[in-house]
Amino acid sequence: MSDPLPLPAQRPSTAVPSGPGTPLPGSADLLRSVFRRHAAGVAVITAGGERPAGFTATSLASVSADPPAISFGVASGSFSGRAVARAAHVGVHILGEHQEELAALFARGGADRFAPPTRWSAGPEGVPVLDGVQGWLVCRVISRTPVGGHCLVVARAVAGRVASDGRPLLYHQGRFNALRD
User: Fold this and answer.
1) Model pTM?
2) pLDDT for position 179
3) Which domain holds residue 138?
4) pLDDT number for residue 16
5) Residue 34: inside a domain, yes or no?
6) How far apart (Å, rounded) are the C-alpha atoms in residues 141 and 13?
7) Considering the domain boundaries, does residue 162 fall inside one?
């Protein structure tokens, strides 16, 4: 018979020490601890299909201006990850600081993300385009690379629009934030 699992209070800490000193070996805990300190813009990635899919992403990056290309990561086993794996085109939506609820909705598993109050329409290539975002792109997927339980997607912008000015929604220290003056 195996030993019983320790109670949560008895489990060893997974906190990663901070400050200068001897580098620690690479681990999931180290990566999470370092990236909690990295403020990231918040985007929603969408994909069309029989049932539209979408998720909140903080891994969005500009890869190239010429050709105009972006990248993001998605959990391979998720509904959205499977939809992105089948999609020829995806939508990329940059959220404003007033869209924390939208970001939270698209981050929540099992939610009907495209039901009211979400406002959206079919955009170029049939990709769901969200209303009220700061800007959006429709991108043609050009590569997918498996990385652990995720997939790194690189896509080329084929259409889009700068929709509104305003301040971006950020993700930092495990929560949504806004820029400070």
Assistant:
1) 0.85
2) 86
3) 42-174
4) 58
5) no
6) 40
7) yes
